[in-house]
Design the sequence.
């Protein structure tokens, strides 16, 4: 497989070099592109020094716009698989082969912290949000999901094409699953370890959390209503 790892990054100069080095250590055969999302620090220079291709956006567009840029790049360069990984070190590169090994089972493979026992621990409020969205997506898709907010994912060409056409802009992970299911894609989860972010801080404050819950819930429901469900080929 021709594999591309997409790393959206905003002001991650302290961690991006090590993230790239780890990917090269555990999966030296993959290509890496960093989508530098209007960073004001040395993220671009650090990523280039570590050996990654860098796409620098002129201003910050957010995770959705950054990831769609990566998927457009993957489609243009005819990659078979595109993997999303965080720039802050939360997604261990040693877990990446698990996602790639499961690509023959699905169109999208999600690295889940909860499909089996792991060492990851989250705050009570964050865990409540994760459970809520997993149950919401499971209800709308009639399939069980445990970690719909995970940004550790591997997508095949069918999904790359879907995401190149449309990718949710704001807090996109949850809605993007429903979008794929409405387009007849097969989605599976595999158990992976994850770490706390290795540098920087999360942009999700208590106020943003409330906004996130309301906005994503509405977006997911509207997505389910907007797209007529397409059954995957069997």
Sequence:
């Amino acid at each position: 497989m021709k594999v591309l790892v997409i790393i959206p990054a905003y002001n991650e100069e302290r961690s991006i070099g090590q993230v790239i080095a780890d990917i090269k250590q555990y999966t030296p055969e993959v290509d890496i592109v960093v989508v530098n999302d209007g960073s004001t620090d040395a993220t671009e220079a650090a990523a280039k020094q570590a050996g990654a291709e860098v796409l620098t956006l002129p201003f910050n567009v957010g995770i959705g716009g950054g990831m769609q840029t990566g998927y457009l790049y993957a489609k243009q360069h005819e990659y078979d698989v595109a993997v999303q990984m965080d720039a802050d070190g939360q997604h261990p590169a040693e877990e990446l082969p698990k996602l790639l090994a499961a690509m023959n089972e699905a169109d999208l493979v999600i690295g889940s912290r909860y499909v089996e026992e792991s060492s990851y621990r989250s705050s009570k409020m964050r865990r409540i949000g994760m459970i809520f969205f997993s149950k919401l997506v499971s209800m709308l898709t009639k399939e069980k999901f445990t970690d719909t907010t995970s940004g550790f994912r591997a997508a095949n060409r069918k999904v790359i094409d879907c995401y190149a056409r449309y990718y949710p802009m704001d807090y996109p992970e949850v809605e993007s699953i429903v979008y794929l299911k409405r387009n007849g894609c097969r989605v599976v989860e595999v158990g992976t370890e994850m770490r706390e972010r290795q540098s920087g801080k999360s942009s999700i404050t208590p106020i943003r959390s409330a906004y996130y819950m309301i906005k994503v819930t509405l977006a997911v429901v509207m997505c389910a209503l907007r797209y007529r469900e397409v059954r995957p080929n069997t």
Summary: The first strand starts at residue 3 and ends at 9.
